[in-house]
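>> received
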Amino acid sequence: MTLKKLFHVVFAVLISLSLPAQGAVILQYHHVSETLPAVTSVSSETFTEHMDYLKEHKFNVIALNELIDALQAGRTLPDKTVAITFDDGYNNNYQQAAPILEKFAFPYTIFVNPKLIDEGKNYVMSWSQLKELANKGALISNHSGQHDYLHIKRDGESDAQWQQRIKQDIVSSQQRIKEEIGHDYKYLAYPYGEFNNQLQKLVKELGFVGIGQHSGALNSHSDFTRLPRFPASGFYSKLESLATKLNAQAFTIQQLTYTDSVTNENPPILRMQLSIHDFHKSQFACYVSGIGPAHLKWLTTDTVEITSPKKLKKGRSRFNCTAPSISKHPNYYWFSQPWVIIE
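>> returned
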């Protein structure tokens, strides 16, 4: 090989290594309604504005299975790739959201609770309505049997008993979806977005992809037992802030270390080993929900320890970490660590 050819080969390899990892964003909705709780709702008008934005700015809106398959296989996705999801399968998804999505020809996924459907609850879609949407291209997937907190053990329940109960819940819910709809996409959206180490391990053993409600972009390096989604309802429905999130990039995380997402360690400690190639360390920042800037301590050139300046409140909380991209200005890298403080 000539010196000139060798230079071009080395140059090409260096360029490929310096490029940011390709990624994507998943949006999460609940209600499309003007009459239900605002915290989990968007109006038809606002939802249409969101879809208009995706169309006008040429986002690559694809089905969730295409997105997950591509990332798991390490395939490159186009910039601005987005998947749209809904949790709980409410009636208004059929009445208001579906016609809007059909107009835009956007694929989407609905995570449902089969036991609630079988019980005929009047606020969720029926199997026939879901089948109708599936026949038009919607994906129907698993949100557990009846929206319980899956990580919580019952009084006196052993680890083995808990594991058997939750395994039965997930598997039987999946079977009902397969029987009624024909789908067998092994995606589990965690109820309330809550998960712990044990639940993640069980989900992986069952061959499922676990999906949360914590914000952030994702790429092929993401943990497929805790994929993030950007909530797009209520306070998070404002188009200006949502546009920033839609253009978010995923950090390439080599190692993520913490005790557990559900914990009595307070404040909890998070360590991230990052591939730092497309952002400046000085611009990496993390915020604690309801508190403010987190404390950062760089342990090595690529590993940072993140803590809260004071104790987190009991219940759900987050560390949100961002950094502006060098190559894709003005886009931001975005990662969220969810916590459930139990004491």
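>> The chain has nine helices and 20 strands.
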